Amino acid sequence: MLRAYLLLLMSLFAMSSVMAATESVHPDDIWLLIDTKAKKIEVKKGEQTVETLEHVAIGRGGAGLKTHRGDNITPHGEYRIGWVGDKSMFKRFFGLTYPSVQDAENAFQKGVIDERQYQRIAKAHALGQIPPQDTALGGQIGIHGLGSGDARIHEVFDWTHGCIALTNSQIDHLSQIVDTGTVVKIK
Fold first, then answer.
1. CA distances from 118 to 99, 124, 125 (A)
2. Of 40, 57, 129, 155, which is the most buried if we count CB atoms within 10 A?
3. With contact defined as beta carbons under 8 Å apart, do 92 and 145 qualify?
4. CA gap 89, 171 in Å, rounded
5. Which long-range contacts (CB under 8 A, 24 or more apart) does 45-49 make?
6. Taking the complete model, does pTM exceed 0.90, yes or no?
7. Where does the chain have alpha helices with state H?
8. CA distances (Å), origin 147, targets 18, 80, 92, 109
9. pLDDT digits 0-9 by tens, 112-149
């Protein structure tokens, strides 16, 4: 009983922290809306689109509810840029705070992750940290460039393991606009 109560409290605390973080987005803040059907990223300032990056690639498995590591699905949800990797094999990597508390809740209810893993994810979000990247839900989801990859393949089909890929020039441009903490909504 105590365990269930603690789990509920941690879940509520984590959700309130996530909601507070979302509500703290000032109308003048830049954020990203990734439209996985239209294959584009809208750079937003408040509700206004200030520019659009076209022809992005997503996971080979499409987009939606990510169920486990290796499913090649780009997750729908709201995240933040948690870290920036400038020495990535994909030119530049903006790591997202995946899995979210909602991702963890769904996975916990389906038995994909256990209570301990759920608590680790919820606690990381509650503390404003990067959630564990080593659970059954996977990790290392982000926005990146092509690196030395073939731009022709990028134009033809979705090729990532769940990330959002841009051309090298697009990721260079995006790096001038966003940084850690930027909100990223994937739909």
1. 10, 10, 11
2. 57
3. yes
4. 13
5. none
6. no
7. 2-23, 101-109, 115-126, 151-156, 168-174
8. 32, 23, 8, 38
9. 999 999 999 999 999 999 999 999 999 999 999 998 88
pLDDT in tens, 61-71: 999 999 899 99
Rounded average pLDDT over 86-97: 87
For strands 63-64 and 74-75, give the pairing.
parallel
Residue owning tokens 């109308």: 27
Q: Which residue has the tokens 């809740």?
A: 105
CA distance readout (Å), 42 to 87, 126, 130, 163: 25, 28, 24, 16
| Chain centroid to CA 111 | 22
* Entry field: residues in the chain: 187
Q: What is the mean pLDDT of the chain?
A: 88
Q: Which domains does the chain have, with CATH numbers?
A: 2-186 (2.40.440.10)
